[in-house]
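Session log. Operator J.P. requested a structure for one protein chain; no other inputs attached. Running the standard single-chain path with token output.
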Amino acid sequence: MTSKATTKTHAQAPAPHAADSHDLIRVLGARENNLKDISIEIPKRRLTVFTGVSGSGKSSLVFNTIAAESQRMINETYSAFVQGFMPTPARPDVDVLDGLTTVITVDQQRMGADPRSTVGTATDANAMLRILFSRLGKPYIGSSAAFSFNVASVQASGAFKVDRGADKTRTVKRTFTRTGGMCTRCEGRGTVSDIDLTQLYDDTKSLAEGAFTIPGWKSDSFWTVRVYAESGLLDPDKPIREYTKREMQDFLYREPTKVKVEGVNLTYEGLIPKIQKSFLSKDKEAMQPHIRAFVERAVTFTTCPECDGTRLSEAARSSKIKKISIADACAMEIRDLAEWVRGLDDPSVAPLLTALRQTLDSFVEIGLGYLALDRPAGTLSGGEAQRVKMIRHLGSSLTDVTYVFDEPTVGLHPHDIQRMNNLLLRLRDKGNTVLVVEHKPETIAIADHVVDLGPGAGTAGGTVCFEGTVEGLRTGGTITGRHFDDRAALKETVRKPTGALEIRGASANNLRDVDVDIPLGVLSVVTGVAGSGKSSLVHGSLVKGPVAADEGVVAIDQSPIRGSRRSNPATYTGLLDPIRKAFAKANGVKPALFSANSEGACPNCNGAGVIYTDLAMMAGIATPCEECEGKRFEASVLEYRLGGRDISEVLAMSVAEAAEFFGAGEARTPAAHKILERLADVGLGYLTLGQPLTTLSGGERQRLKLATHMAEKGGVYVLDEPTTGLHLADVEQLLGLLDRLVDSGKSVIVVEHHQAVMAHADWIIDLGPGAGHDGGRIVFEGTPAELVATRPTLTGEHLAKYVGA
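Structure written below.
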């Protein structure tokens, strides 16, 4: 009896199950972009932060290797037919990827700038509201489509024949009606455009004299100008101001009409619809700078007078629940809307109300309660867009998922970072793996595991410098470890302003009739919690205000650089132009020969350097061109040399090497050297001139944009969160650059949350005290020392804690 009891008490614990052994993501031999054959093990169901200087390879490892391979493998589970409709990424350059789980990527990509896209349509909130109003709204006007500003009302009727076989046919009549909620005047955009005719032509001239002032409309252009002059509808020799009423109607508004010009059949169309199709229907941000400037001059956008900017038809606005229309609901701040929805209680829509409450509460929880559902998605900052994407994952019941975040603290005030940290920890505690690319020490500090890449950027990076705990990082001797506890000190003396930019009565978005003087000749920082009105003040009232043109304001925002794999730092900055001219002059040939996108391109690969083979639903294959061996130029062009180097060797140089090469000796080219110095000033000395823009990180792209704008003649520079994507060590270099700009006589205004930049400022303007309708006021103006001494705001409290005051 005793023996049996003893045996039972000392029974061995069951052996671990084989399924429990897969608790690591193993990466062996990763070589994507600048990664140098690295191998690493990442613990699952933990929070791992990847850090390192900008360009060290963090995104290449996390996004381009781990996340990309997970997505590719998930895509392969679908049938070949379905895969034909999906993107087909190539397998990352890695030997082994083991232990992967489903990856959900939450990146900083801005949401589409389509005017029809709003915060409500980008999430499920708008769809749920439409269903709610279609069920409970009084009077009843129709289905959920009747409340959508993207659906137009349509009526159609007609007859068609149905073949019954054996010469039997039957005529069937059908009538189709669909009630949509789109405002007919603005077509659901909320604004109407008005074209300034004086920007399109000079009415004192005739068409023959070159009356058009539209970019690209040359007098001999067969498809544009000559179709007007030779259509037979207008007198080409009569000044436009002398046109009759009929001629003016034909000139500006005539419907498309077939005309014959020099024996060729062409379509004549009125100038206004032609301009609308040619310019206004395109994304303004994708236009060339001179075209964009023309559109901004020629077109004014005003709130639609018919729907008052709500985008909705009168019928959609007439249907209400508790005296609130769907337009009113979408215009509310989301935190107020959440309270209103909580007051609704109808059993017939109980599941819908529960889902809507959860979505709206997620907005509030994530710190976006100050937004409204009718806010255009294109106006969200990168940080706001990333947090909007997080919303659908907060209430998810999924576990054992890998979440990948790209700097989730971007655009967050120090006060808001703790809330974001709690959300990351919550996702981890549900049993998920959380991978975060981050530079902020507040977020690195909560990591279970840290991976530090470097030691440098570009070719000097791509290796794992440290793996382990946060305490180990502090003593690990890496650049990140050495700078982890760095704190910028307050300036002992600040610069004195040379003048001021006066902003009076600013009321854009949530601003409350703000009056403020922004000092000139100094480094000014505009700060405040997310949603307090910083961007509305700086971009709405300063950059786009009447003082901008007078003072020469140059704005450098966070809009992404657009470019294909053929674009590189040399083409983007205009550096390639003086280089091509220098090669042409030295060899007595045309500059176009030294462009891989023009006459000098390798005929086999058309200057791409690789041959792309499309394999339908399989990943396409890119193989180096055998003719040019990836150099992109035809062989005869590579025989021309400058300073002993051919054009492909020059494009393979780093910025630092090229600055030395073009700075002296036979290859001395002052115009090129000046651009290269600006690139080195912003910390991009390691980039190669011919590196595709598509391979650059977010921080590198913004600094590339900064280097380009530094050439402009403006006296006032406005920077929107220039520390985005910057390592702690890189921030020091940025502060040095800002100082040099100010010392050269420029005025620098920075919208920023980074405390190192605040501490380094000469003047701080703090907005708040809260977000949305709790913000929009100036709560402090003065020097950083005064802000730390008095601590009148949340910013003051966090800055005082940062500098150890």
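Operator note: Confidence is low (pLDDT under 50) at residues 1-9.
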